[in-house]
Amino acid sequence: MLVLGIETSCDETAAAIVRNGYEILSNVIYSQVKIHTPYGGVVPEIASREHLLKIRPIVDQAFHDAGKTLNDVDGIAATSGPGLIGSLLVGLTYAKALVLSTGKPLAAVNHIEGHIYSVSFEHPGAEFPALALVVSGGHTNLFWVESESGDFRHLKYKLVGRTRDDAAGEAYDKVAKLLGLGYPGGPIIDRIAKTGRRDAIRFAIPKITDGSLDFSFSGIKTAILKMVRENESLKEDPLRPDLLASFQESVVNMLWTVTAKAIAQLHPQSIMLSGGVAANSRLREVFQERTGEEGLKFYFPQPILTTDNAAMIAAAGTAHLMRGEFAEIDVSPDPNLRLAVPERAGQNRRWRL
Ligand code: KG4
Ligand code: ZN
């Protein structure tokens, strides 16, 4: 089965051709990062206009790189949410136009499900049930993932934990902005932190004591904001590496502590790490080491598949299409689309997907 994937949920215009869900024939990503950098974050109106300009050449490039044409594909998969409404509209509408003109089936893919599938390319034989931690600029979610088929063809998700405030990547981006380091902050902080002492500053890690598997990152960010306000010299070069290495260690500790709690409660076979923050070198190192101690398999995507891409959307879409789950042609993008409702829904708490 040959599938065209299209991803435009945020600031990447991406298209990919994937065979049978795990063989990438092409994977084209146009990042708008440079356009948004002067604003310190993504500007939604600019993002959707850029998608409009780029969607056609990027899809054409994906076909060209794969040596395939529209006639060759068996289906088209596009992200339908969550994300920026204007951005989502461009990719999904383009996919619908291709579907209308060819009669091929359409898969509407949840972006978060796509991130989970980003580990499937290198680990098609991954072991389930798994705990999947999706950490990006917009999301920090922990899912319990079961497979009816024993592989990636038929997954079921339960949301067991999520951030109560900022997403992990958002905390990186905000701290970088605070220190005037540029956007996106994750890769910059990752690089600078390598030269700092991880134990230089001890941030109080928020303890969530209601027995949930939730995360919280805003406390660490606020602590840094206060420290920088009180001591402007922290912005100076010689002190930055220690501050950033300590910040990063706290974020990684938070992510591992909750994951470890989930492992003890749920006994998975494997841990899957995905999303933009999964590129973080310290996060990978700690998870690799600790999952090894727990005797668990640990899967994470290759760097090009950690940030937003269309190969992961094509992979998740392939599973939908193989199961005969076709989207209607009038499907609308949903900026708040959920992959699973929280386990403890009904309680009046803030949560994000
Ligand atoms: O998955 P993604 O491309 O977009 C969303 O769906 O949000 O993730 C982007 C996020 C940004 O917040 C960026 O700062 C973060 O991933 N990121 C990193 C690293 N590379 C990207 N965070 C920490 N360390 C990195 N090496
Ligand atoms: Zn993403």
- Spell out the helices and strands N to C: EEEHHEHEHEEEHHHHEHEH
Strand tally is 10
Strand order in the largest sheet? 3-2-1-4-5
Q: How many angstroms separate the termini?
A: 30 Å
The major pleated sheet works out as: 5 strands, mixed
What class, by secondary structure content? alpha/beta
What ligand molecules are bound, each kind once?
A: 5'-O-[(R)-(carboxyoxy)(hydroxy)phosphoryl]adenosine, zinc ion
Overall pLDDT metric: 93
Number of helices: 10
Global shape: globular
- Low-confidence parts: 345-353
Helix percentage: 25-40%
Strand share of the residues?
15-25%
Radius of gyration: 20 Å
Overall description:
39% of the residues lie in helices and 18% in strands. The strands form two sheets. The chain has a five-stranded mixed beta sheet, with helices on both faces. A five-stranded mixed beta sheet has the order 8-7-6-9-10, sandwiched between helices. The two termini are 30 Å apart. Helix 3 links the parallel strand 4 (75-81) and strand 5 (106-110). The longest helix is centred in the C-terminal third of the chain and has 27 residues, at 240-266. It has 353 residues and is of the alpha/beta class. The protein has helices at residues 33-36, 44-66, 85-102, 111-117, 168-178, 185-193, 218-230, 240-266, 281-293, 311-322, and strands at residues 2-7, 12-19, 23-31, 75-81, 106-110, 130-135, 140-147, 155-162, 270-274, 297-299. The protein binds 5'-O-[(R)-(carboxyoxy)(hydroxy)phosphoryl]adenosine (KG4) and zinc ion. Zinc ion is lined by residues 111, 115, 136, 275, 308.
